[in-house]
Design a protein that fits this description.
The chain has about 350 residues and is an alpha+beta fold. The radius of gyration is 20 Å and the shape is globular. Helices cover about 35% and strands about 25% of the residues. The strands form three sheets. Strands 3-4-2-1-14-13 form a six-stranded mixed beta sheet. It has a six-stranded mixed beta sheet with strand order 5-6-7-8-12-9.
């Protein structure tokens, strides 16, 4: 039986909304997670709690096996007290949090080492507290690890290419991280989730590289909607940020009724500056060759936020980075521009003047 036939068969026997909520609560209590993660597993398994729990623990076992050696090395190298003291010393802006998102085009082997090192130089220069990366490979991950020693890397895979979240050592406290599957992906795509504290504020961070190309619009939109549901179900005490190379077209968002209530597009929130709109712009970025006079430009890369209740942070500035060519190779760091967003911690902003970048 095909997936679509199975979905149609199960639609008629779905439990009620109240029963779905009850099963989410049961899953969360048993696993020690939350209802957002519970919904992600239960929806893919027709709300069968036993199957969902089995799949969760299978994934946990694989992840713990792969990560145990890395965790042991990290624990030996960095104690929590050292991390915190180092972070405080390097933080000249206690009211500010910065997040960078960037598809670094690790699949293009042209000048890959120089380009990846240029990405690392920009990360070290801008000093964001957390970084969402897409199209990372095993080779480029090694470059990032050696070139960004003040960051810990959380990979979302280890195959041909994958996403990563980088966190600033000493300023970000990891609570939980999980790679959530997209069962119908044809391109090894998933959703990488990190629950953490940044400067004592609660966050749920989500990054993904949604299905690519016009022909895969249906699956891309399904992946987007899953990510939005995880955002909506996350704890109200946390600020939730989701973004990456989402490959979105504006009409795809419009066709699902727009962004859900309570979730906002950070580029729109910060003034919709036209010079910061197009993140894949072949009229400015010539890393890829597009035949003919027409040069497409699209807002493939996006960042969304669902605020905590009450709000704890506010996005105040959104800019594109990676706009300069890399010396000696003539290429830009990537065929995508990076997105750098600046947030204010509301409890630490003393006056309106400090909100200006």
């Amino acid at each position: 039986m095909s997936d679509s036939e199975e979905d149609n068969k199960d639609d008629s026997s779905l439990p009620s909304g109240a029963e779905c909520e009850s099963r989410c609560q049961m899953f969360a209590e048993v696993t020690g997670t939350d209802t957002a993660l519970a919904m992600f597993y239960l929806q893919d398994l027709q709300w069968d709690v036993d199957r969902a729990l089995n799949k969760f623990y299978e994934a946990q076992g694989e992840q713990e096996s792969k990560g145990s050696k890395r965790k042991q090395e990290d624990d030996e190298e960095h104690s929590e007290s050292l991390k915190m003291s180092r972070g405080e010393e390097m933080d000249p802006e206690p009211h500010r949090i910065r997040l960078l998102s960037w598809n670094i085009d690790g699949l293009d082997e042209v000048a890959i080492q120089r380009r990846t090192k240029a990405v690392c130089e920009l990360i070290n220069k801008e000093n964001p507290h957390t970084v969402f990366l897409q199209e990372v490979t095993v080779a480029t991950q090694a470059i990032i690890e050696s070139s960004c020693p003040t960051y810990q890397i959380i990979p979302g895979g280890e195959r041909e290419y994958f996403t990563c979240i980088l966190i600033k050592i000493g300023q970000v406290e990891i609570i939980h991280h999980q790679t959530l599957p997209f069962p119908n992906t044809m391109m090894m795509r998933n959703l990488l989730l990190l629950q953490c504290k940044i400067k004592a504020e609660n966050f749920v961070l989500l990054t993904s590289h949604l299905e690519s190309t016009k022909d895969h619009s249906k699956e891309r939109v399904a992946q987007l909607q899953k990510a939005f549901r995880v955002m909506e179900k996350s704890s109200e005490s946390s600020t939730v940020i989701f973004g990456g190379d989402l490959n979105l077209r504006d009409k795809e968002v419009a066709n699902i009724g727009g962004v859900p209530r309570g979730i906002q597009d950070i580029w729109e929130m910060t003034g919709q500056r036209p010079e910061a709109a197009y993140t894949w712009d072949m009229s400015r970025n010539d890393n890829k060759v597009f035949p003919g006079k027409f040069k497409p430009k699209l807002r493939f890369d996006r960042l969304y936020i669902r605020g905590a209740k009450p709000p704890t942070v506010e996005p105040v500035y959104f800019e594109l980075v990676g706009l300069e060519r890399v010396a000696k190779c003539g290429k830009f760091p990537s065929d995508h521009w990076g997105l750098l967003t600046h947030f204010n911690i509301l409890s630490k902003v003393k006056n309106d003047a400090s909100k200006v970048k």
